[in-house]
Specification:
246 residues; alpha/beta; six-stranded mixed sheet; five-stranded mixed sheet; 6 helices; 13 strands
């Protein structure tokens, strides 16, 4: 059997963060070292790359990510600044950071869910219209930051995507059977769900993980859980996703 196409997904590095004693750059470097032997064909980083959106944070993140040795595709999270992110990763344009890349045999479609200055996300009509046009029938992964799922964990659901926007995204996904998965981060946990007949996958952070607590009234992160990444493998035309702790 031929070697599968591999898309590595890293999420929520939060370079520059001081939430715990763990160093986000050291942890990202450890994840990069773990990813590199798999020789992925491409890398997607699903937001919150920098914690304060400083140029030096993005510069360090890019320096580390390039050591994987594959093209790196970035998108913003709620901690990111669109302009600084575009400058650091050579992404043209302005406004929402949205683009599609043909990574034969897979199409990567990057969708911006951020609201500048806010922790929560949204998918307005303009963004969903763009997504509808970017999906062209090929096998595709839609990558975003905020997960379009209701989790049952109140503080995370409070800074997610509104129910109406999730429903509108589901309608778009239902029209495009070529979408293999919707992948994101934000929650700092491995989570799977379904929307519009498509699997939704949340990948853990390369920094610290969100504590699993359905009775929580505030978000708590835990540096005792290890950092992690995902490898999305296209095997015989279907996507299989592997989440690996480091």
């Amino acid at each position: 059997m031929a070697r599968p196409f591999l898309l590595a997904q890293l999420s929520d590095p939060h370079i520059g963060a001081t939430w715990t004693d763990a160093d986000p750059a050291d942890r990202l470097e450890a994840v990069v070292e773990a990813v590199r032997p798999h020789a992925p064909d491409a890398v997607v980083v699903t937001g919150d790359i920098a914690d304060h959106a400083y140029a030096r944070e993005y510069g360090l993140a890019r320096e580390l990510l390039e050591q994987i040795g594959a093209p790196v595709y970035a998108l913003p999270g709620n901690h990111d600044d669109r302009a600084e992110l575009r400058a650091a990763f050579d992404i043209p344009g302005d406004g929402p950071v949205q683009y599609a890349v043909d990574l034969v045999p897979l199409r990567l479609v990057v969708l911006d869910t951020t609201i500048p200055g806010e922790d929560g996300g949204e998918l307005d009509a303009a963004r969903l219209e763009w997504l509808d046009g970017a999906l062209d029938g090929k096998p595709a992964i839609v990558a975003l930051h905020h997960q379009p799922l209701q989790l049952g964990i109140p503080p995370w659901d409070a800074i997610g995507i509104p129910a109406a926007d999730r429903a509108a995204l589901a309608a778009v996904l239902e029209r495009h059977p070529g979408v293999e998965a919707v992948v994101g981060g934000h929650i700092h946990r491995p989570i799977t769900g379904e929307l519009g007949g498509r699997v939704v996958i949340s990948v853990p952070s390369t920094y610290v993980q969100g504590r699993l607590d359905f009775d929580a009234d505030a978000i708590v992160v835990d540096s005792d859980e290890p950092p992690a990444f995902a490898l999305h493998a296209l095997v015989d035309g279907r996507l299989v996703s592997h989440v690996h702790q480091v």
